[in-house]
Amino acid sequence: MKYKNIKYAGFTLIEILVSITILSIILVSVFAVYISSSEISLKTDITRALQQNVKSSVEKISEDIRKNGFDCVRNSIALESCDLAGINITNEWSILTIWWNHYYLAKYDGTLYGITNVSECDEIDEKCTLVMKNWTSSAKPIMNSWVDVKNIQFLASSTGPKKVTILMTLQPAIWKWIRANLINENRFYFQTTISQRINLN
């Protein structure tokens, strides 16, 4: 009996190994591009959130100053502590008083926002924000939960038109599932000066 010599087409072990290596390189490259684009997208979202929060809070304060002028900066809400000449940057907290409204840094404790020591907010995982409180209501945040305020100072000047300079340090909120290294890389330092509108009448 004669056996037919049948040849089976297939891959050699070397060909399979080369194919797997090339496929692995392609997959790693695609994954690296995906991770990089995700990181860029996340950084863009973080920057946008920080800028929008700064813009909305400064607009709120500016509108309040334009409507009501501002009284002073202080380091306590007590009426006798008003200081128009400015507040020392080493003070533990800073409060801007505009008519009945007070703007200050506060730590979120679950339900309430109280005046806080600035050093308490410096830790990366502390949830602090800029709040507004008037004599008739409790403190309300003027920034959203995507942003933590790490430091704030209000510096006032009464020479010429009254003006107040706002200095803030912000970062993305850690509890929004953002990695710690991205939070440190995206700390945002902001400074602006707002002048009280001069009444020409």
Word description of this protein:
- This protein has 201 residues and is of the alpha+beta class.
- The protein has one domain.
- The protein has 2 helices and 9 strands.
- The strands form 2 sheets. Strands 1, 2, 3, 4, 5 and 6 form a 6-stranded antiparallel sheet that branches. Strands 7-8-9 form a 3-stranded antiparallel sheet, with helices on one face.
- Strand 3 and strand 4 form a beta hairpin.
- The protein is elongated and about 105 Å long.
- The N and C termini lie far apart (122 Å).
- The model is unreliable at 85-92 (pLDDT under 50).
On the 0 to 100 scale, the average pLDDT is 79
Question: Strand portion, in percent?
Answer: 25-35%
Number of helices: 2
Count of discrete structural domains: 1
Question: Biggest sheet, in brief?
Answer: 6 strands, antiparallel
- Distance between the first and last residues' Cα: 122 Å
Which structural category fits the helices and strands? alpha+beta
Q: Fraction of residues in helices?
A: 25-40%
Number of strands: 9
Summarize the structure.
The protein is α+β, with helices and mostly antiparallel strands.
